[in-house]
């Protein structure tokens, strides 16, 4: 791994906020501290699993606008037999172990490895790690020597997992999900319960009953794993619970994904007490030597200290990022799937919207500023939308499309790329959808020149095409994996994830220059990520998109999705 030494950094700090309950539940209030840095290769602390040597061409300066991520988000948590905290990371197909004594983060199962999109983990008495693979509907087991095998591959939305007295229990986080006990010898599973509205991370209580959050019902239930009786409701009226663990006193501790609360719940009475108010997006929790830690979609790991106090162990940061845009106010906005951010002057990220905030259009992938306070977005759920986050409003312009990526404003209305079908689409102001081009090989980014030319990055073919009424014609070829596109000042800027570079093409004569190289974009060389199939209804297939945008002063902003940062290329 590699990280970049910080030069003239802003001190890392936690933004603590106090206020009323209404203010605490405000989904737009979370701030994540980040920094502006100069890129200097020195040693390992980012998630990017290969050394890089970023550099800029003469006349350009390369800065990091947003600090890189330590993790690919943070989902399931489990304390391992070695005392380390094991962290499942869905979008990175990675499992990491955090040593709380040293702060070291070790990759246990890496991107490109045998475990795909792990959402939760558990250990058996022999030290084998079991992982639910939510997007592939699988459960895999990794032995202490690293050998990995698939235990079952017929578990749609496999998510919650726990061992109890040597027995393995699994839940499916989907509408109509099942709770099951797996036969470790390979026989068919035993179904404990069916038609559960999205059960999530579960645990056995001191009474020997299986406790589990039911997100669709906003409740916590329990069931006798050996009985045939109906489940009992333990607690209701929560903040969308997505994990259950037990403290040393036998009380439930549960994270609330929508409200950002960490609750202690009496399993006998259902009485609730607030342990901590954090930002929405909490996913799981675990105890290490009696200390309570919680995870967030952002990759944040937070210790809950008591009395409402918390301490950041790993800071939240970007999960991907995907597309970027510069709005009329000159600020940089970042699409990060479940989160939508604006970059603050100090390099920190302010949450503008997220999956559980009102009016959020869905898992945002493509992004374009379309007016004051308004954005055009594509979602991995197949929607094209007009999004006004300040007003909590979203208008869907089209739906039911297949793997949408880039989006742009065009004279005719809105244009977007549909990668699943290889098409380029136009959505008219009247709401009609017109096919402008088809048969493209994995199109990703799209841009419109000031003259109205429509340009599309065809990543599978390694080229950029101009879309005309008669079809698609090659404009730039010889690329490896073009993704983000930007037409500005007579030039076309291309983010090539294969070359790890930003390339500038003169639209008048076709000459090209490389503006920046050695960027942490896409997977490291030699790593072939497995496809992420998506998690209905939260998202469809998830894929990379290294976007690019320009500020009023000509600064280029680039998504470095490999390391989870945003880069700035400035003319000097």
From TrEMBL:
It comes from the Bacteria. Pfam families: SGL. NHL repeats lie at residues 440-470. Keywords: Repeat. Residues 72-287 form the SMP-30/Gluconolactonase/LRE-like region domain. PANTHER family: BLL1406 PROTEIN, VIRGINIAMYCIN B LYASE. This is Gluconolaconase.
